[in-house]
Design brief:
mainly alpha, elongated
């Protein structure tokens, strides 16, 4: 079995910053932290300041690492630029995402796009388009049951209310 991978903590990043300022080598820093020297090298390569590589700030490096980790789990909803322009133009014309998704398969044969992908695109990547939706809510409402109906949906229980 291989070793368990764990991300660097803010404390480890602070120690890296201190030891770098003291002139320690990457191999020595890795040895003292109990990490492989390539982990230290990769950390400095990925999370050092993008403009000037001469210094390392632990709190900024930690912010960059967290942001990269969050963004790595999100994929763009509308990848094709032509489809994106089509969706935006139809939204501006007053079409709903459901109408656009239904029509896109006819105008672009072999291409499928669900209406939920359009909603996710609008709410995540193009918030200025929210006002073009039929119900231009700034936040999406959760789908599901309300509190008063919650008991009636428990399997095996019958609600008499």
């Amino acid at each position: 079995m291989g070793r368990k991978h764990s991300h660097l903590s803010i404390e480890e990043r602070e120690m890296i910053g201190i030891m770098l300022a003291q002139g320690e080598s990457q191999r020595e820093i890795g040895r003292r932290l109990g990490r492989h020297h390539t982990t230290i090298s990769r950390e400095l390569e990925h999370n050092a300041p993008p403009v000037y590589k001469g210094y390392y700030l632990a709190h900024k490096a930690h912010e960059r690492a967290i942001k990269r980790r969050i963004e790595s789990h999100q994929r763009p909803r509308l990848k094709n630029q032509q489809i994106k322009e089509y969706v935006v133009s139809k939204l501006k014309d007053g079409w709903s995402p459901e109408q656009i998704a239904g029509r896109i398969a006819l105008e672009y044969p072999g291409f499928h796009l669900g209406y939920e992908a359009i909603y996710q695109y609008v709410y995540r990547e193009a918030p200025e388009m929210i006002r073009c939706l039929a119900r231009g809510h700034r936040k999406r409402y959760q789908r599901g049951h309300s509190r008063k109906h919650r008991q009636s949906h428990i399997p095996g229980r019958i609600s008499l209310a």
